Amino acid sequence: MIHIWLINITIAMISIVIAGLIAFELFQVRKYSKTRLTIALSFLGSILVLEELVIFSAFMMWSSYDNPMYAYPSMAIATLSLLGLIILYYILRI
């Protein structure tokens, strides 16, 4: 079960980095255009980083349990979150 926990933590840490990159891109857009939309997007980028930090801390909290009932749904959440962040970052970079 420790392997699944390590995979979840690794995926969560990668997600935090990608969420930070997304927030950075949104703040770069805000430098060029200070509209209400870019301010709102920058705020959402910050919330995205906070969300990933909460997911990371939630995964660390169940590390003492060996119950697969907690491990596999957490891995699914981490994987789907990472895929969503990668797609969002790809869209922002285009």
TrEMBL record:
Keywords: Membrane, Transmembrane, Transmembrane helix. It comes from the Archaea. The keyword Membrane applies. The chain crosses the membrane at residues 6-27, 39-63, 69-92. This is Uncharacterized protein. The lineage of its organism: Archaea, Thermoproteota, Thermoprotei, Sulfolobales, Sulfolobaceae.
